[in-house]
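Entry, Tuesday afternoon. Goal for today is a structural model of the target with zinc ion bound, before we commit to ordering more compound. Inputs were pasted exactly as handed over by J.K., no edits. I checked the ligand SMILES twice against the vendor sheet because last time a stereocentre got dropped in transcription.
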Amino acid sequence: MKDLKNFLADLSEKEQSESGVQYKNALLQKEILAYCIRNEKVTIAELSQYTNTSVPKVNDVVSELLDYNLITDLGKEIIGVGRKPNFYGLNAEAGYFMSVEVHRHHVNLALINFKEEIVVLNENVPFQLQNTKTCFEELCSLIDSFLNAQHQYVPKIAGLGLTITGRVNHKTGYSYSFFNFHEEPLSKILEKRFGMPTYVENDTRAMAFGEYAKGCVGDEKNVLFLNLNEGIGMGIIIGGDLYSGKSGFAGEFGHLAIFNNEIICHCGKKGCLETEASGAAIVQQLHQAIRKGTSTILTEQECIDDIQVGHIVDAALKDDSLCIELLSAAGEKIGKGIALMLNLFNPELVIIGGELSRAGSLILLPILSSINKHSLNLVNTDTEFKFSRLGTKAGVIGVSLLLRNELLGID
Ligand SMILES: [Zn+2]
């Protein structure tokens, strides 16, 4: 039985073919698939109008897509008086994508179907991110184990999407901050290792795209997505497109040098927002406060060395005053950075995502009050603020969407 992988192989043959007819057919197939991706149920008449193509021609292409099992026949439905058109929709089981989200202290691995539904999700798999070959091998072993456990899906997995912190150029597949010790780009290394097409993207940009396509974004086209985690990143969507910059380095929000401090950031500079308000900085501030004798419920629950920002958020939600104060101070500083972005971008929507967003109003209120202090009133009243709806799933969904669009050559 044919599936997404057969379709992709034939598509690339048609696109390289000398024949204009084959090439046009590939374009129309992609256009129709893209429409089916955006719409739950479609009719031939609708597709004909959308693609400006005759009904018989659309019928042919729909038959081809049915033959590849990429779409299914949903049957007839009565609309209005007496009209009973036939509906078609994506077939969730046409193919699968594997998503790997690499964090500093854990990895999330997921299997996503063709309709972008999560089929399997292994969250918080223990992992310590280091820029070493051993660490890269450990990551590959985790992917191997995941694939072994999902062996029944493996023949239908069409590609691998991986997100990682730091500077990533998704076009070339190079990751510059981590695992950059091969001559070839990281995407090529993974592609050879796992035998499937691979898409590598910056973690925050993948989350932003996931949230944009499947999360809390409605009709907004100009959106900033904040990833408040161990580090601080920003995904920028302008006019409905994910903005990566010339080489994929856009959105280094955490490295805005807006503080006059002597703390050296991991980027090598001083005064970055990350040195004051990232999850890693908040953990450092907690350690300092504990050393000075401030009490917190965390010292009763956790070994001090094991405390991560997630524990601080949990403690704040349990009314721990030190953790509430630390989050409030961080929110104030993050708000100062967002104020700069509002003045520059005038976005319709700012989404607060990442681990710190779990703190809810404990982080949002200080952010908003700081924005009022630091940005132009006319500009900030134009912008709505929302929390991420996909939460920890934004990245695995986002990267598989980007991978799917790349494989199918659609936006
Ligand atoms: Zn920095």
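The chain has three domains: 4-93, 95-208+395-408, 218-388.
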